[in-house]
Design goal:
By secondary structure, this protein is mainly β. Helices cover 10% and strands 54% of the residues. The protein contains two helices and twelve strands. The protein has a six-stranded antiparallel barrel.
């Protein structure tokens, strides 16, 4: 009888404490291996993402998805041309639509241009790329290194830090100098 009384007094309702402990947990909602995600808009394929591992944290208040073993994304432009992004690590922030790519990041364009850096941020909503890291850019007209990049996805508007390398510039002939 003493044992039963001691047992009853030692039992208490810990459900609230368990709920509070579980609220602070940072466990993922799901983990998937060898994934392939296809992004479409108006029945047109916009991008195809493949990765060896995908960890989904969309159960947290600040939702995100992580690609801890790297990823490859093929983007299709309006003409159907393929552009490829490779990285050793990636994280996609759901609410901000910001993608953080790290480690051996390469952006390969269908026209042969290649951007290489250690880290690259992609603002998918505004279609804008930026980094504060050293980067290299090569194409038919450019071959340079710089620190810091801020550009649109077509590289038609961009700002960088100090440039080191070769840039081909063409100017129309001045009509006065040809006479």
């Amino acid at each position: 009888m003493v044992f039963t009384i001691a047992l009853l007094f030692s039992c208490e309702d810990n459900s609230q404490a368990l709920k509070e402990m579980n609220m602070d947990r940072q466990d993922p909602l799901a983990t998937a291996k060898s994934i392939r995600m296809v992004y479409t808009d108006s029945l047109r394929i916009q991008a195809i993402l493949t990765a060896p591992k995908h960890v989904d944290y969309t159960n947290l208040s600040f939702r995100y998805a992580e690609f801890p073993e790297g990823l490859k994304v093929i983007f299709f432009d309006n003409d159907g041309n393929e552009n490829e992004v490779l990285a050793d690590y990636g994280i996609l922030y759901d609410e901000t639509k910001l993608i953080d790519l790290k480690g051996n990041v390469q952006l390969k364009s269908h026209d042969g241009s290649i951007l290489t850096t250690k880290q690259l941020f992609w603002d998918s909503e505004n279609e804008w790329l930026f980094t504060e890291q050293h980067f290299t850019f090569n194409d038919q007209d450019y071959n340079f290194n710089a620190l810091r990049l801020d550009t649109n996805r077509d590289f038609t508007k961009f700002q960088t830090g100090n440039l080191i390398g070769t840039i081909t510039v063409t100017e129309p002939l001045d009509s006065l100098s040809t006479q």
